[in-house]
Design brief:
Jelly Rolls, alpha+beta, 11 helices
């Protein structure tokens, strides 16, 4: 079946199903990237779909949860997207989140877990604004000379300023939460987090390594201040999570500039904090930094083993989690063509076969070898030959969200 026929069939299935849905549609504004979509969407060079090298059975639990969510109006689905700068920038993940949460009328959902990057003096997604007071130092698991400890985010901002504060609010869409988690290193016993906004209750959750608070009414901004009994010790901020009681898709973004597979293996408390949002589906986007090497220097065996370890970590939290590997975009290395994208694609297919996962082959959809030059000329990729522009991330997000949606609809035929 060709791509256009798949889209028509998908639309027909949704038309048939919409009458069964119990609730009505999403009206909030599209994120920045999707507003940059080309007026005429490019046709992918190969069919836009999830490939299942060993079958799609591993996805049954997540599709069943989607059924309960969409048709019974109950529960939620945790989707976790792990990557490097493509994820930290927020353009890709904000667009995918919006598309998936708009998949069915009234579906909606939450931002879930994210990091206030500005506090760590690095680029922050435009969809939420961060301000702070005090002296903070940022450290990333992707930088060899930076030291942890790190949690699930792979990035932290630490301070010894006992008067420091942090404030976060949504710019394009209200955060709209009544339950907040502020993740921090467990060794900071001399520090405490005072969550502002008059929560009805607040506490420290030692198992998740997070300060938590609840409100009876929805909140639109996060604000907290530090309290310290010993200013010689340090406090490490490791992430935020917003939740509410509504049903929907919780799309969590974990991304750190420069991160490769081995970077997250430094995060010794990755598993502990991941229990805060046990993944039903993990979207793996690590590979562009692993493969950013001279020709012949990319170790595919180590790359695969690193991913095996990360998969094992996730399965400690949810043994039934499903996995999607997103292949690298075609790219350049120091201005010259980088041939390792094809090798990443082959490793990801082996991983998907081994772990019952799926592959979204963006590398070949965008045109495969040396297609990055065409994308640069079209204004879909940046001149560095590594990152996409707003329009490029919008295209990738639309393709991936559509492939997930199509695979979900396809399970009704089985």
């Amino acid at each position: 079946m060709n791509w256009h026929a798949m889209r028509i069939e998908r639309q027909m299935i949704w038309v048939a199903l919409i009458g069964l849905l119990p609730f009505g549609g999403r009206l909030d504004a599209q994120p920045i990237a999707l507003r940059s979509l080309p007026s005429t969407m490019p046709i992918p060079a190969r069919p836009n779909q999830l490939d299942f090298p060993s079958g799609a059975k591993q996805f049954d639990p997540v599709w069943q949860k989607m059924d309960t969510l969409i048709f019974k109006g109950k529960g939620h689905v945790n989707m976790v997207h792990v990557g490097g700068s493509h994820v930290q920038a927020g353009l890709l993940t904000d667009a995918i989140r919006y598309r998936l949460q708009s998949m069915a009328p009234g579906l909606s959902g939450e931002r879930g877990f994210f990091f206030p990057y500005k506090v760590a003096q690095t680029n922050n997604p435009a969809s939420y604004r961060v301000s702070y007071t005090g002296e903070w130092t940022g450290q990333r698991c992707s930088v060899p000379y930076h030291k942890g400890p790190w949690g699930v985010s792979g990035i932290r901002a630490w301070t010894i300023d006992s008067l420091a504060t942090v404030h976060v609010h949504g710019r394009e869409e209200a955060l709209a939460f009544n339950h907040l988690r502020v993740f921090s290193a467990p060794s900071d016993s001399s520090y405490a987090v005072n969550i502002l906004g008059d929560p009805d209750t607040s506490w420290y959750n030692a198992s998740l390594q997070a300060y938590e608070a609840r409100w009876e009414t929805l909140q639109d901004s996060i604000e907290f201040a530090l309290q310290s009994s010993d200013s010689t010790h340090w406090f490490s901020l490791e992430g935020l999570q917003v939740l509410r009681d509504d049903i929907g898709i919780r799309y969590h973004a974990i991304g750190t500039n420069g991160a490769a597979t081995h970077s997250y293996l430094k995060c010794e408390r990755f598993v502990d904090q991941l229990h805060a949002f046990p993944p039903d589906l993990v979207i793996w986007g690590l590979g562009i930094n692993d493969a950013y090497k001279q020709i012949g220097r990319f170790d595919t065996v180590a790359y695969e083993q690193h991913y095996d370890s990360l998969v094992a970590w996730v399965q400690k939290v949810n043994p039934h989690a499903a996995f999607i590997w997103v292949t690298n975009n075609d790219s350049k290395y120091k201005g010259n063509y980088n041939p390792h994208g094809e090798m990443v694609q082959r490793v990801m297919r082996r991983l998907a076969r081994k772990h019952g996962g799926a592959v979204h082959d963006f590398y070949h959809m965008m045109g495969g070898s040396r297609s990055i030059n065409f994308w640069i000329r079209k204004g879909w990729a940046k001149k560095d030959g590594i990152h996409m522009t707003h329009a490029g991330y919008a295209i990738q997000a639309a393709w991936l969200a559509e492939a997930i949606e199509w695979s979900y609809l396809n399970h009704f035929k089985s």
